[in-house]
Design a protein that fits this description.
The structure is a homodimer of 307-residue chains. In chain A, α2 packs antiparallel against α3, α3 (43-61) packs across α12 (287-306) and α6 (110-121) runs parallel beside α7. The first copy, chain A, has helices at residues 2-12, 29-39, 43-61, 73-76, 79-95, 110-121, 147-160, 176-179, 188-200, 221-230, 268-271, 287-306; strands at 16-20, 67-70, 99-106, 123-126, 129-132, 138-141, 163-169, 182-183, 186-187, 212-216, 236-238, 262-266. By secondary structure, chain A is α/β, with parallel strands linked by helices.
């Protein structure tokens, strides 16, 4: 799957993933209003609104980027109907040829991690039959429990040709509280990065990159530079660009000299572009076109950083 | 909620939580067979089987223990129907007066953690209305992202009177890979424990315990002893007893001198008791009675350890 991601990046020229993190504040009013009138102010109505909103976004960007990254928390927040909307979003992205990175940040002890891995990247086995699970192509994984919490994910990656991104250095302000602490002079995040290399060592694709990638926040470019060198064969999923403060010029640190090795996420900056002054001309009705314009601007911003 | 948990432990005399971690191997054949015949070998049939299995278990143990702990991965493994079974299990446990610890191990950056916190411990806000979420009483939380990933959970705990258990030292074999690494002579798990104290410092209940507890595995009793002393006002949720190898005599380390401060989880050891030689007399039909007998034996084992 990492090879399909690389092919997608080459084809579009955009090492960009669009974060589909819907909140009620981001969904244009004409969409929520329609479903609230039809179904009342209910989680089911929100789920329908999310689904329509996401379809509009996917239609607008599917030719421009290789992948989308729905953040499952934003769907789980609306209970079962929200998770149905998550499933529909994954399915629709696949229909349009997009890869899907499930931002699920799961991680548990062995047998439990296996359940998560099968749910999101594998198949549901029931007696003699198999059913699709949520069917993302990649998932984000929390490393705090160590190798036996990650191995079930890499096992499923091997079986199903899928990939993961392990949290190494997250984009949030307090990520350093534990991740930056030094163990014999080495930050914890670097120790995790070394494990990422180990976990992916037998899952190298034909383009030379491993199925085990890493999450490193755009908000920490210096650490991005260090971690890039520690994990030369791991793709880095870079959150924190745009709304969280990560800047285009800093992104170069996350890429390898081949121009590959990183994929940058933007969520609010794209899906809520119509609410920004810069794209205000599109209005709420033009939210999808505004998202498209924001993707094109982001593509240019990254190209300049890499030039 | 921590006060309700303490009252429940005092009333039952059992600092025990029953882990409701259903897998197809654990559910008695008469239950799966019934639903497979009716609905085919489908995730929907598994979900019905899980729901019936759990109801039988809850009916058998609700007067003996204060709480149950469904592991959401085992439900998520069966997709949307599995998560519906999770919801029904939480609701049925509540009907029977049990507290519910959602073993969800979520954790993300601020706004995303807030979505998880509201989904599991808070309410779903839709326009002017509020709906119940999954409505657990406690949730387990992963600390890797630091304070701003945990604070949304403690905020919701304050608003809703709920509680969390933060992963400090997990029960699995490779938990030491990162958690035991020493930072200036202090293991990472102890640094996390110190943060648990800080995060809970303004959420102390009337029994003197904080709404922010910790997860420390029964498989590491020496570390349990250390971490118990670091977090005197935090309840410790102790997984790893029984099937994972944790022994009764080691449990004393996790308790305070008041006989409180810990609640021990057993999952397979109770819900799959009927498959063990010791409880074989009950047979698959008597799985709930076998679970009841296993709870009583565990209660005795812990009482001896604390004597």
């Amino acid at each position: 799957m990492i090879d399909r991601l690389i092919e997608g990046i080459k084809k579009t020229g955009a090492p960009i993933v669009v974060g589909l993190d819907p909140t009620l504040k981001l969904i244009p009013e004409q969409i929520t209003k329609k479903y609230f009138e039809e179904m009342g102010e209910t989680p089911e109505a929100v789920a329908e609104a999310i689904t329509e909103y996401n379809r509009g976004l996917i239609d607008a960007v599917y030719e421009l980027v290789p992948a989308v990254k729905p953040q499952i928390a934003m769907y789980e927040a609306f209970g079962i109907p929200g998770l149905v909307a998550f499933q529909k979003t994954v399915d629709y992205a696949h229909e349009k040829g997009l890869l899907v990175i499930g931002d699920i940040k799961r991680g548990d002890i062995g047998s439990t991690s296996e359940a998560y891995a099968r749910a999101h990247l594998g198949k549901i086995k029931v007696g003699s039959k198999e059913f699709p699970g949520f069917s993302e192509d990649f998932a984000t994984v929390n490393p705090y429990l160590g190798t036996d919490g990650v191995k079930p994910f890499t096992d499923v990656c091997r079986e199903e040709g899928k990939g993961i991104f392990v949290l190494v250095k997250t984009s949030n302000p307090s990520s350093g509280e534990f991740q930056d602490r030094e163990i014999d002079g080495t930050p914890l995040s670097k120790l995790v990065a070394e494990k990422v290399v180990e976990w992916g060592s037998e899952l190298i694709g034909k383009n030379g990159y491993s199925a085990v990638g890493a999450v490193v926040g755009a908000t920490y470019p210096e650490q991005g530079r260090l971690l890039r060198s520690v994990m030369p064969k791991s793709f880095i999923l870079v959150p924190g660009y745009g709304a969280q403060g990560g800047k285009g010029k800093d992104l170069a640190y996350f890429f390898n000299k081949d121009g590959l090795g990183a994929i940058v996420n933007s969520s609010r900056g794209i899906i809520g572009a119509y609410q920004q002054e810069k794209y205000a001309e599109y209005g709420a009705e033009g939210y999808a076109d505004a998202a498209r314009a924001a993707v094109l601007d982001m593509k240019e911003d990254i190209a300049q950083a890499l030039a």
